[in-house]
Amino acid sequence: MERTDIRELNARIEAGTGFLTDLVEGMHRSVVGQTHLIDALLTGLVCGGHLLLEGVPGLAKTLAIKTLASLVDAQFSRIQFTPDLLPADVTGTLIYSRQQEAFTVKRGPVFANFVLADEINRAPAKVQSALLEAMEEHQVTIGEETLPLPKPFLVLATQNPIEQEGTYALPEAQADRFMMKVVVTYPTKEEERRIVRAHVEGGFAKPTAVVSLADIEQARQLAGEVYMDERIEAYVADLIFATRYPLQYGLEDLQKYIAFGASPRGSINLALAARARAFVRRRGYVVPEDVREIVHDVLRHRIGLTYEAEADGITTDALIDEVVNKVEVP
Questions:
Q1: What is the CATH number of the domain that holds 37?
Q2: Are 235 and 301 found together in one domain?
Q3: Average pLDDT, stretch 191-214?
Q4: Where are the beta strands (DSSP E) in the chain?
Q5: Are the C-beta atoms of residues 292 and 67 closer than 8 Å to each other?
Q6: DSSP E strand boundaries for 81-131
Q7: Domain span including residue 315
Q8: Total structural domains in the chain?
Q9: pLDDT, tens digit, 9 for 90 and up, residues 38-52
C-alpha cells in the first residue's frame, strides 16, 4: 500500500474513532484502573470477538461488562450459570400453544447483542455447549427452526479460577471459540483506595448510552480496512507454528511441555485482534507491537500443557513468553 493511502486511511480512522473516547471515559467513570481489561473489551467489541474474563472475585469483571453494555445502546442479557441450568434456559425452547394448537418458539436470553455468561464454569458441559452454535455461527437452532442472532452479537463470559468444587472446566472446543482469555489482576494500592473512597461516598454514577449500534457497525467496517503487511502476517504464522513445532524454532526446552499448539483459530484471531488493537490505538496499519500486546490473551487458552509442565510449575503464559522472545520480529 502506498504511503498516500496510509495517510488517507489514518485520517479516516482518526475521524471515525471519536466514539472510543466516549466509551473509555464512560468505562473509567465506573471501573477504577483495569486498563488492560478495558482495552481487551474494546478490541473484542471492534472485531466482534467473544471474550473470557478470568479472575478472583471482586475484580470488576461483571461490572466492566455491564458498564460497556450500558454505554452502547443495545440489547443486553445476563445468564447466571449454575449447576442446575439447562440448555433451554440459554437458547430457548418450544412451547405448545393450546390456542394455536402448535408449538411456538420461546427465545432464550442468548438473543441479545451483549450476552454476559456469568461464572460460565459453574454449569455442566451440556449447558456450555449450548453456546457453541451461537458463538461460531451467530444462530440458534430450536427444534427444526434456525433463528439468526441480532447484530452485533458478543458473548462476554467470566470465570473464577480459585474454586474447584461445583465448577466444570471449559472443554478445549468451547474455550477455542473465545477470541481472547483475559486474566484480570488486582488493582494497585492507589486504585484500591479510590475504589473504597467511591463506595464510602455513595458509589459510582450510573452509565448511560453514548454509542449506537450503527456506530459499532461503522467502526467494524473501518477496522476491517486497517492495513496488515505480509511481514506481519508471516510473524503471526511464526508465533502460532512455534507453539506447534517448537523444535523448528530452536525451542527444544519447550517440546516436553506442550501437548498441543494453537489452532488455526489462533492465527485468525491473533491477526483480527492485532488489527482491532491498531484501530483502538487510532492507527491505520498494524505494527509488531500490536501483535505482542495481545498474543498472551489470544493464545493462553489455546495451548495444551503436558503433565511435565504442571509438575514443573510451567504456565501457558511462560511458554508464550519464550515463544515471543525467540521468534524474530519483522
A1: 3.40.50.300
A2: yes
A3: 82
A4: 51-54, 72-73, 76-80, 92-97, 102-107, 114-118, 139-142, 145-148, 154-159, 180-183, 211-212, 258-260, 304-305
A5: no
A6: 92-97, 102-107, 114-118
A7: 229-326
A8: 2
A9: 889 999 988 888 999
**Separation CA 299–CA 316 (nearest Å):** 8
What are the cell numbers at 309?
509442565
Q: What is the rounded CA–CA span in Å between residue 6 and residue 9?
A: 5
Of 106, 172, 118, 170, the residue nearest 143 (C-alpha) = 106
Instruction: Say yes or no: 175 and 236 in one domain.
Output: no
Pair (186, 260) in one structural domain: no
**What mean pLDDT, rounded, does the chain reach?**
86
Entry pTM? 0.86
Domain boundary among the residues 200, 219, 238 is at: 219
Residue 133 lies in a domain: yes
Q: What is the pLDDT of residue 206?
A: 80
- Do both 253 and 182 map to the same domain? no
In a domain, 54, yes or no: yes
Give the contacts of 98 (CB within 8 A, at least 6 positions apart): none
